[in-house]
Write a structure and sequence with these properties.
Elements lengths: L1 H22 L3 H26 L12 E2 L12 E2 L3 H14 L15 E9 L6 H16 L20 E6 L2 E6 L6 E8 L5 H14 L24 E6 L5 H9 L4 E7 L10 H11 L7 E5 L15 H17 L2 H4 L8 E5 L17 H11 L4 E5 L12 H20 L7
Parallel strand pairs: 3-6, 3-8, 6-7, 9-11
Antiparallel strand pairs: 1-2, 4-5, 8-10, 9-10
Helix pairs in contact: 4-5, 8-11
């Protein structure tokens, strides 16, 4: 008690003495001193922001390679991944050196397949097989082989033409052209996995390429009704040396997609993969003249339903609503109106990728919001599309810890873009 009283007395004496000195200062000097203090504090806070704002590392050389399964069932040696981003950056650098206008959208390398699926995977040996089963069943049935039997060796580049036709997929009419590339690819991005995630992906590809009646793996939504054989090379496995986080894995995969459309989907298969058709149709409906568009899988229609409320704890539901409020307060106008920013099922037209992927910084759970804000800042049309979704056991999300990290990450992200720590330059 005596120590407390002594401390209060000391503080009071210091405050009185300081106030006396300041009170005796000329007004002009007082203003100047206040301005210097405020400037110093602002500079220190800005410096702190530079320190805490995430700056992702560049990919290692071997992270720009992939493995796949060859026609004879052997796993391939590491092959170089195609990278539209490297080509795009080189062309921009050349244009800047020659003082030419910025590259137009069509300068991104043309698509070789119709749709690319990026699957970020961290220790997903238990859940990945079921997700892949439902994905390849849908993809092969709807989009077929990219180039006949040999999807791995051939490539056909196509750009949209005026000759269009409709293909109904899962109740949705896709707009296709005679030059639209066929086929699909899945990029499994193993995000520093310590288990057998990569072996599971390659083993799945081998069985579904070679076997006439491949063993079906039960997925979260259904046990596929028929055997699905897939073209060789359609599943590519990318290995990241170190865990980067879901956002880092998705961004890395998006740099190497070959599709006219690119979607990322969680490895747990919680999102109903058949609703990919609705995402593509929605994206095509809002695309601008540059063919840019983003379709956001949404679970907002399920809020309050048994699929969400009964399968989640009261704490998780409370934090979910709190985070949505936080997003509405901190994000930009159009992004703040999106009812579900965190669903792991988002699709991008190829033309929209150069406006988003080169400028990504967040590698954690909040990366979705940065993608959407970047799309909004580039005036890319976005549409929210209701999808099927269910809770799947095995989530790696720590409700309290990750919720706090997401809120902090969102605040740092927003301030960094506003104050110019991050920019498109």
């Amino acid at each position: 008690m005596d120590d407390t009283m002594g401390a209060l007395t000391t503080f009071r004496d210091w405050y009185t003495d300081t106030y006396g000195h300041l009170h005796g200062l000329p007004f002009g000097l007082f203003i100047c001193l206040s301005a210097v203090i405020l400037f110093t504090v602002a500079a220190l806070l800005y410096l702190l922001l530079f320190i805490v704002a995430p700056i992702p590392r560049g990919p290692y050389r071997n992270e720009k390679t992939y493995r796949t399964v060859l026609p004879d069932g052997r796993t391939s040696e590491e092959k170089q991944l195609p990278c539209w981003l490297d080509t795009w950056r080189a062309r921009r650098t050349e244009a800047s050196r020659k003082d030419l206008p910025d590259l137009a959208t069509e300068d991104i390398e043309p698509a070789e397949v119709f749709v690319s699926v990026v699957v970020p995977s961290y220790n997903e040996e238990e859940r990945l097989g079921g997700m892949l089963e439902e994905a390849v069943d849908y993809l092969q049935k709807q989009y077929g082989d990219a180039h006949g039997t040999f999807a791995e060796t051939a490539s056909v580049a196509g750009k949209p033409s005026g000759n269009k036709n409709k293909k109904t997929v899962n109740g949705s009419a896709h707009t296709l052209t005679n030059s639209t590339p066929k086929g699909w690819e899945i990029l499994v991005v193993s995000d520093g996995s310590k288990d057998k995630t990569e072996e599971v992906a390659l083993g799945f590809a081998k069985k579904h390429q070679l076997a006439h009646h491949p063993h079906k793996v039960k997925g979260p939504w259904k046990n596929t009704g028929h055997d699905t054989r897939i073209p060789y090379g359609s599943i590519r496995v990318i290995t990241l040396e170190e865990n980067r986080g879901k956002g880092g894995a998705v961004t890395h995969g998006m740099r190497h997609v070959r599709g006219a459309y690119a979607v990322f989907a969680d490895a747990d298969g919680a999102s109903k993969f058949e609703d990919l058709g609705h995402l593509i149709t929605g994206c095509q409906a809002v695309q601008d003249k540059q063919a840019r568009g983003v379709a956001i899988g949404s679970r907002a229609h399920l809020v309050g339903s048994d699929a969400v409320v009964k399968q989640r704890s009261k704490l998780r539901n409370f934090l979910m609503h709190s985070f949505h409020l936080f997003i509405r307060l901190l994000t930009t106008r159009k992004t703040s109106k999106i009812k579900d920013t965190q669903c792991g099922f988002k699709l991008f037209s190829r033309a929209s990728l150069p406006y988003i992927i080169p400028y990504m910084h967040s590698e954690g759970w909040i990366f979705d919001v940065e993608m959407l804000m970047l799309a909004e800042s580039a005036n890319i049309p976005m549409i929210e599309v209701p999808i099927g979704w269910k809770e799947v056991a095995g989530s790696k999300l720590n409700v309290v810890k990750d919720s706090v990290a997401m809120a902090w990450g969102l605040a740092v992200l927003r301030v960094s873009w506003v104050l110019g720590v991050y920019s498109r330059s």
